[in-house]
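Contributing: when you submit paired examples, paste them exactly as shown. First protein:
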Amino acid sequence: MALEAAESVTGVVARPREAARGASWRRTRVFLASSGARFGAGVILLVALCALVPGLLAPSDPNEQRLLARFTPPATRTADGTLAMLGTDQLGRDILSRVIHGAKTSVLIGLSAVLLAGVVGTGLGLTAGIRGGLADHVIMRLADMQFAFPFILLAITVIGILGPSIRNIILVVGLSNWVAYARVVRAETLAVREKAYVDAARSLGVPLRWIVWRHVLPNVSASLIVVATFGVAGAILTEAGLSFLGLGVPLHIPSWGGMLAEGRQYVDTRYWLALFPGAALFLTVMAINLLGDALRDALDPYLQARQARTSVVQL
């Protein structure tokens, strides 16, 4: 009898684990079945490689000026015999090298800004959702004020006082985007805190911080991943826009937005100055958005349940 009881308990424990593995496998299959996700992952891997080892991939120094080679068209050799795959700019700098090094700037700012916004927004959203009352009211009113404050005015104020730098761009972009994370986490937390297992944990005297860490945060992580994925694309676009307006990184740091700003006055005669950084920016943002769409489909439990019911009906 004792052996049968032990086997039954083992089966009860094993079944949830098998169900969790099955759910993870289904999510992986949904993600990999998306052609957009595969394309996005390939582009993002290439951009990440350029960001990690730009010195190994770039054919030359991105700030090296060669006035005799200025405005060299793409796939043409310069006066010294060097092949310029993407051409050179008005100062003779190699555009391919600057595009590769610009990936490092965009990835660094995009990931850092999302990390900052995610940490601040998640913390405030959890506090508002769990505590409720005055804390919820104050945090949501701060979010409303943040939405009402013009972003460009904030950027001009901060960068005008502190000066243009990568750190200041991360601060501006990160602290202006925390509201999206706070609202999503608050909404998810309000739903999770009413669950039976949360009430059971409270009745057993489990500390609130452990409830948040063990029960609430894992249940809001799927939504956070999706929001953060789209947030990286938004942060990269924002950095490019600020650099285009002259409010971004310093001029000696290659960035796609800065290259677009330098090439705009030559668009009608030297198209490659703006074409290639613009294409890199477009492909990167599109790849991240495609990846975010696939992650949303893979992590959405309602969509998975709907597809499972459709499969059963078809059978």
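Second protein:
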Amino acid sequence: MTSPDVDDTGSDARGPAGSGPDARDDARDLDLATLKALSHPLRVRLWDLLVTAGPATSTTLARQTGESTGSTSYHLRQLAAHGLVDELPERGTGRERWWQAAPGALRVRGNGGEYETPSGGEVVRAFGSQWASLRAGSLERFHERVIDRVEPESWVDASVDATSFAYLTLEELDALSTELGAVLEKYAGAARSRDDRPSDQHRRIEVQVLAFPTIDPAVEGHAVGGRAADA
């Protein structure tokens, strides 16, 4: 799951990693063992902090999560063992180790192979729930800043929070997802090439992209993908 969203076809957890007609093709598909390691509540929070806020030490992450440094250090090493985070030895000093999220997009396949087991399904469900909660929390904090009038009005006006519903074919949905990914890549791709904040005029922007089928009450019980929709 520009950076994960979990559905039948998979989820992109870091956002499109490459350029081209469909950046989703460049995502790394996580195996069940790696997803299980990431699904630990503290590990997914640590990984999310490294994705959203950039490199950090275990001490900084401990302060942000309310955990001990020993705990964050252990779980960072577990994430590193699965290729989800990398150490930055050039930034380390003595016993202080710096970590960053491994570059590239991650994708969670919710079907096929090892995921077609009760335990596999539970791992996907656990990770999807935690990821959705993190993203919802991020949006809620933005709304709170707007309500409390601590977010500059100019940045609020430039932001977008929109939901739309439409009847689309499978081909149209795929085209929509590809086009949204291309727009995201246009801006996020350039930003990933920068090591640091370019100037005081730049702010870190979170872009959440979701497009997925829903159950239409008007056709409840109609066959979906060869199976009857649940009532």
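If you have annotations for the second protein, write them as plain sentences, like these:
The first helix runs from residue 32 to 38.
The beta strands are 28-29, 56-57, 85-87, 98-101, 106-107, 223-224, 227-228.
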